[in-house]
């Protein structure tokens, strides 16, 4: 159990740091493209929001891959595709159970699920913040700045 914590917790911390950096990238991107949102076009706002969403999803998929590489390095899976699938199931807390890790490393699954819940929550919060701001700015522009 201790060995799983010694491997899983640093992986979680690395993913947390990576997600924090990614949120900063998203915030900077959003700030640099704010002029596209501050007009009355829903299309330009939609493009910015979709790029934000895509970046956040890609960040979550990179984290799934990081966990998959850990599982692969531990010999839990023979192919990256299987490890990635199992990792995605854990990260999204689906828990299908069609691929199961050995008794020795099974604690890593719940650790990754905790990581996934946190990271998907952070992604959702960042996306909703950008979406709400974009909608507010677009509606203000449509009403001539009087909201």
Characterise this structure.
This protein is mainly alpha-helical and 147 residues long. The protein has a single domain (19-139), classed as Helix Hairpins, CATH 1.10.287. It is built from 5 helices and no strands. Helix 3 (42-73) packs across helix 4 (80-91), helix 3 (42-73) runs antiparallel to helix 5 and helix 4 crosses helix 5 (108-142). The chain is elongated. It starts with a helix and ends in a 5-residue tail after the last helix.
The low-confidence parts are none
Q: Kindly identify the CATH topology.
A: Helix Hairpins
Helix count, per DSSP?
5
Calculate Rg over CA atoms: 19 Å
Total number of strands: 0
C-alpha geometry: elongated
Distance between the termini: 56 Å
Indicate the percent of residues in helices.
over 70%
| Sequence of secondary-structure elements | HHHHH
Any guess at the CATH architecture? Orthogonal Bundle
Task: Please give the domain count.
Answer: 1
Percent of sequence in beta strands: under 5%
- Mean pLDDT over all positions: 91
Class by alpha and beta content: mainly alpha
Task: Using the coordinates above, name the CATH class.
Answer: Mainly Alpha
Biggest pleated sheet: none
């Amino acid at each position: 159990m201790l060995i799983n914590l010694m491997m899983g917790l640093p992986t979680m911390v690395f993913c947390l740091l990576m997600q924090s950096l990614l949120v900063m990238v998203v915030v900077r991107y959003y700030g640099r493209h704010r002029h596209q949102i501050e007009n009355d076009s829903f299309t330009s706002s939609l493009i910015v929001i979709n790029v934000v969403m895509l970046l956040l999803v890609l960040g979550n998929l990179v984290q799934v891959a990081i966990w998959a590489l850990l599982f692969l390095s531990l010999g839990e899976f023979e192919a990256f595709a299987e490890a990635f699938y199992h990792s995605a199931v854990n990260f999204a807390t689906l828990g299908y159970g069609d691929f199961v890790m050995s008794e020795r490393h099974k604690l890593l699954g719940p650790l990754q699920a905790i990581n996934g819940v946190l990271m998907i929550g952070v992604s959702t919060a960042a996306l909703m913040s950008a979406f709400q701001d974009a909608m507010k700015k677009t509606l203000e522009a449509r009403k001539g700045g009087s909201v």
